[in-house]
Amino acid sequence: MICGIDEAGKGSVLGPMVIGGVAGKDLSEFVKKGFADSKTLSPRRREQFYEEIVAEFKTTTVVLSAAMIDELRSSMTMNEIVARSHARAITDLMPDTAYVDACDVNEVRYAETISGFLKNDIAIVSKHKADDLYAVVSAASIVAKVTRDRMIEDLKSQWGNIGSGYPSDPDTIAFLKRYIEERGEPPSIARMSWKTISNMMAKKNQKKLFEF
């Protein structure tokens, strides 16, 4: 038994990070399905693949809210948070070998970090761009991406146009600036420990000083 693990939303300033995991017998059954890295697929194709994956394979998701990420960052690095979450997904699937997208510049170190969070002896194949190299990780990236995209759409129904949640998205930045200007604080769906937020709050406070 093998599994693939990947995440979506690691760098987002708004909303959750989602880890997706998919398990199967061997790599070949994922290769023949034609799964590809979720970033290379259209939203419609991702949704089609997602329905196929959840219908035919064992899957799992681990969701970390913005507040949970902020709390964990007080005691560990973001890479450790992702590794711990990858380990949780691996534990749910209990494979013999897990293929993971390495979130550390050192692939071997990242595998060791994940192993430190596991209770069972599971082989970890940690590679950069694993979602391109292994179809099982591509499948996991699709599960993570589609799950997070659906959660972002739910947040939009509550909060309005928040964009994708990433700091590089003009809609996300516009939403944050407007919200902080009107309310004087970030929205509860924001990752307060992100520099994007601390910089905006610093500018807001500086502006208030000049008003006196």
Question: Would you give an account of this structure?
Answer:
With 212 residues, this protein is of the alpha/beta class. The protein folds into two domains: 2-153, Ribonuclease H-like superfamily/Ribonuclease H (Nucleotidyltransferase, domain 5), CATH 3.30.420.10; 157-211, Ribonuclease hii. Domain 2 (Arc Repressor Mutant, subunit A), CATH 1.10.10. Helix content is 53%, strand content 15%. The protein has nine helices and five strands. A five-stranded mixed β-sheet has the order 3-2-1-4-5, with helices on both faces. Helix 2 crosses helix 7, helix 4 packs across helix 5 and helix 8 (170-183) packs across helix 9 (195-211). The radius of gyration is 19 Å and the shape is globular. The N and C termini lie far apart (66 Å). The mean pLDDT is 94.
Present the secondary structure layout.
Blueprint: E1 2-8, E2 17-24, H1 27-31, H2 43-56, E3 58-64, H3 66-73, H4 78-93, E4 97-101, H5 107-116, E5 123-127, H6 130-133, H7 135-159, H8 170-183, H9 195-211
Parallel strand pairs: 1-4, 4-5
Antiparallel strand pairs: 1-2, 2-3
